[in-house]
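COURSE: Structural Biology Practicum
ASSIGNMENT: Worksheet 4, Part C
STUDENT ID: 0417
INSTRUCTIONS: Below are two proteins. For each, the amino acid sequence is given first, followed by its structure token string. Answer the questions at the end about the second protein only.

PROTEIN I
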Amino acid sequence: MIEAHPAPIVRMAELEIEADQLEAYRPLLAEEIEASVAMEPGVLMLNAVALRDDPAQIRILEVYASQKDYEAHLQTPHFLKYKSLTSGMVKALRLVEVDPVLLRTKMG
């Protein structure tokens, strides 16, 4: 009998960071992403990029193994620390639900 695996949860977080806070924000984001990927088996991928012409516009492609893993991620100490420390830095946040067309990662 083949077990069905839940579909991954994929979303794009669109953030606008206060321009004068960008230098302080980036290491906090990096710390949160590193901890999430290293410590949470259900966090399959977190990739952050900045728009070239507007570096205060950050986009994060998030991939979680399941909805349960996403919800667990939101309760982790490292995510709660990130949210607390960056709350005054984030000018706007929009979570966009997306459907994966093709997700591939080259390891190594």
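PROTEIN II
(use this one for the questions)
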Amino acid sequence: MKEFELKYGCNPNQKPAKIFMKDGGELPIKILSGRPGYINFLDAFNSWQLVLELKIATGLPSVTSFKHVSPTSAAVGLPLPEKLKKACFVDDVQDLDSSPLACAYARARGTDRMCSFGDWVALSDVCDVTTANLVKREVSDGIIAPGYDPEALEILKSKRGGNYNVVEIDPNYIPAEVEHKDVFGITFEQGRNNFKIDRELLSNIVTKNKELPENAVRDLIISLITLKYTQSNSVAFAYDGQAIGVGAGQQSRIHCTRLAGGKAATWFLRQHDKVLSLPFKDDIGRPTRDNVIDGYINKNEEDVCADGNWQKYFTSRPEPLTDAEANEYLSSISGVSLGSDAFFPFDDNIERAFRGGVSYIAEPGGSIRDDAVIECADKYGMVMAFTGMRLFHH
């Protein structure tokens, strides 16, 4: 296939639209089901690069959930603790632990479930049946992978009345070293961002504390690779093999950090005993549960638990999660890793990171206020590495 005609571009009025290779060659993809659109393919090709790079860097099956050309999360195939299984709505899957790819999917899709509603999924490995069954029951626009087990493909092709978008990409495809983009009739040209993110990138530790354990190395690599394919400015919190909060596309870095930190806090609080024991009615769908849990955690009482309202969702009125309970729970958390796609210009980002349980930081450095940022990190005993490399993505 040399080109694929799209229904329209970013919006219905933007026609004609298609994807093709500028050199006239074959597209490195097969469309196995559905008819992906312009934004679907933007998500597909960005998300595939992320999981491919993450698999190479960690050696583990990797998955990301994308929405509007930024990841909601990315994760590697580590087993899930029981509380996390329940928080991700996968505690009913008996064979989950037998598939590292399915574990990675459960983590990535379960991180920011509200933002992942209607997502695009990328898998680093051939899709197996367990992973396909997990994808089938979520609201999603499509998936890209290097291959599909025959039974897994049939499961996915049955989704959305047979219209679910399933794309297979050639894992050996290597893009041209120079890329182009047209804006307002003007063509931009640049070299591809082939910068390698690995353990060596974290060797320049600038804080007094220089003890960087291997699990933090892994999580910092996950956060940085996630940021490499996130619309800038961006900050990512990572923990236990997955990005748990992504602050994307903000003009101010502190807003990135606040946004990512807030999402990370929600991820942690979804595993609070009060949240896990919410008495949902049996007929409440998964997306509705996501919205209700978010409202419950973030104290939107008028939407969730107000008089005359809670009966829509619960068999009995739940006890509120008080600020004191939430703060006590969150204050016990540490060991979180944080990556930033550009330097921190002020130490307010470090203060906010500390309140989010961050112990390890990777950022480029190079600010005129680096000394103040390092001093703040030292105040909290953090480990901070300067990578020397900006990771802007637009």
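ANSWER KEY EXCERPT:
Q1: The mean pLDDT is 95.
Q2: The chain has three domains: 3-17+24-174, 197-269+331-386, 273-320.
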